[in-house]
Design brief:
The chain has about 230 residues and is α/β, with parallel strands linked by helices. It has helices spanning about 10-25, 25-30, 35-45, 75-85, 105-110, 125-135, 170-175, and strands spanning about 65-70, 70-75, 95-100, 115-120, 140-145, 160-165, 180-190, 195-200, 205-215. It has one domain (about 10-215): Rossmann fold, CATH 3.40.50.150.
Length: about 230
């Protein structure tokens, strides 16, 4: 990808401007002309260069996904910021993330909520993410290697659930683990023609879904065998 020297301060500032611009450009889809200050502060605070492979760190603040190994990617910063904002996180929330990947999204969430539980199906990625998070001192994140489709029922219900891989539909186990009044943000559909969907569960347990934006995520992986439920 060529040689490049990264000025971290300038690169972070430029990335924040690019996210703000893209938020404005996609407002007709999302209904949001800007993201909340706390979310943008979390994006600014988390060192994305620490979550990408060493040979790609010069590109860490490009507003695009980057490969992290095992066929997976670290998501585009704009998408991370938007999904975080759509989750409506609060300081007392407990959140479940499906698809730890590099650990970057979990790190961003950890700046905004009380506790993050995150599940990754690919053991080497989970181990690498754990090393990143431990080294950087993120101490309100708990991880496990498991089938993300099944969630993490031991710590349910969750105030929010964020899924960073695409499923053909919203997994029923995740709906069950979402607290009444909670929100889930998930890319849905088979293949690469996906919609970013916000799922809400009201106090009575009624579930509604709203498509927000066309997206392209890697597919949800894991040993689940029945994707019809």
């Amino acid at each position: 990808m060529g040689n490049r020297v990264l000025d971290l301060t300038a690169a972070r500032a430029q990335l924040l401007r690019e996210i703000e611009r893209e938020v404005r450009e996609t407002a007709s889809y999302t209904g949001r002309t800007k993201l909340r200050t706390q979310v943008m502060d979390a994006i600014a605070d988390v060192p994305r260069e620490a979550f990408v492979p060493t040979d790609l760190r010069a590109f860490a603040y490009d507003n695009r996904p980057l490969p992290i190994g095992d066929g997976q990617t670290i998501s585009q910063p704009y998408v991370v910021a938007l999904m975080t904002d759509l989750l409506d996180p609060a300081a007392d929330h407990v959140v479940l993330e499906i698809g730890t990947g590099s650990g970057y999204q979990a790190a961003v969430l950890s700046r905004l909520v009380r506790r993050v539980y995150t599940v990754e199906a690919i053991a080497p990625l989970s181990e690498l993410a754990a090393a990143h998070l431990q080294r950087l001192g993120y101490d309100n994140i708990e991880m496990r290697v498991a089938d993300g489709y099944q969630g993490w029922p031991e710590h349910a219900p969750y105030d929010g659930i964020i899924v960073t891989a695409a499923a053909p539909h919203v997994p029923a186990p995740l709906l069950e683990q979402l607290r009444p009044g909670g929100r889930m943000v998930i890319p849905v559909n088979a293949g690469w023609a996906q919609d970013l969907v916000v799922v809400t569960k009201d106090a009575a347990g009624k579930v509604t879904q709203e498509s927000v934006l066309p997206v392209a995520f890697v597919p949800l992986t894991g040993p689940h065998t029945d994707m019809r439920n």
